[in-house]
Amino acid sequence: MTDNIYTRIDAVIINALKEDIGSGDVTTSSLIAEDNVSEAVLVAKEDLVLAGLQFAKRVFQLVDKSLRFKTLKKEGSRVPAGSAVAKIRGKTKSLLVAERTALNLLQRLSGIATLTADYVKAVKGLAVKITDTRKTAPGLRYFDRYAVRTGGGNNHRFGLFDGVLIKDNHIAAAGGIGKAVKLARSNAHHLLKLEVEVKNIPELKEALTAGADVIMLDNMSVGKIKKAVSIIQSKDPDVIIEASGNINLENVRRIAETGVDMVSIGALTHSAPAVDISLEITCA
Asked: 3-114+273-283 belongs to which homologous superfamily?
């Protein structure tokens, strides 16, 4: 990570801490002496793929740099329920102040990594990539996409700035697929891939004729995806094929078996359930 990324990560964590702490933790301040020291462990309460320990550690460091954080499990590893994944020692007040923000990040990111790993497992043995989308929590895109990679998935374009993706509203505003592609070729940076979203075979043929580098098959049935893949491969085998829309763990392998190059799934980041991880004080 660059210094800029570190700065952005800290800014997100600091804002989250301010949101939670406000003018101070009135409960902890009422109960715990300033010099009280404890040891705590972060415990997985269910089977999961671990992601986000470095961010959880940073939460504790930003609350109190004297806290000592020891990682017990490897990032990206499958962790069985009941396992301690990290140990923290220091002022009890600091542990309790940092607890919820650290857990919120760790639970969310591990949930995303766990769901991603399930999708990757479902297509094991096939030459296809499982990718995310821009459907991330506002302000948490770097974190969410890190979790996808940790779970074995791949990242799509990060934002609006690093890839041309012509979708239905762009097509409507530009006056058609052909016109949209022509404008993008004329005005976008020449090193950017040009992707077009299509919903049916006529749109697919238009995108191919226009010279799209990548074609997204949006909300198509498995049968239509097979037909689309056949058309694309016969006309231009260098075109990258993406399937997207209404994809779940039950149908992802059938879709992957059609020959698409990647399957993008918004649910990886917008609908992954947070896993259950707790902080438990073990000794004082």
From this structure: Quinolinate phosphoribosyl transferase, N-terminal domain (3.90.1170.20)
The one catalytic residue in 197, 203, 206, 242 is 197
Distance CA 18, CA 225 (A): 48
Which position among 135, 182, 205, 227 bears the catalytic label?
135
145 catalytically annotated = no
Q: Which amino acid, 268?
A: L
- Residue range 37-51: mean pLDDT, rounded: 98
Confirm whether pTM is higher than 0.85.
yes
User: CA nearest 53: which of 22, 77, 19?
Assistant: 77
CA torsion 52→57→58→59, rounded to 10°? Answer: 90
pLDDT digits (tens, 9 = 90+) for 198-238: 999 999 999 999 999 999 999 999 999 999 999 999 999 99
197 labelled catalytic: yes
Q: Any catalytic annotation for residue 10?
A: no
Active-site pick, 167, 199, 205, 224: 167
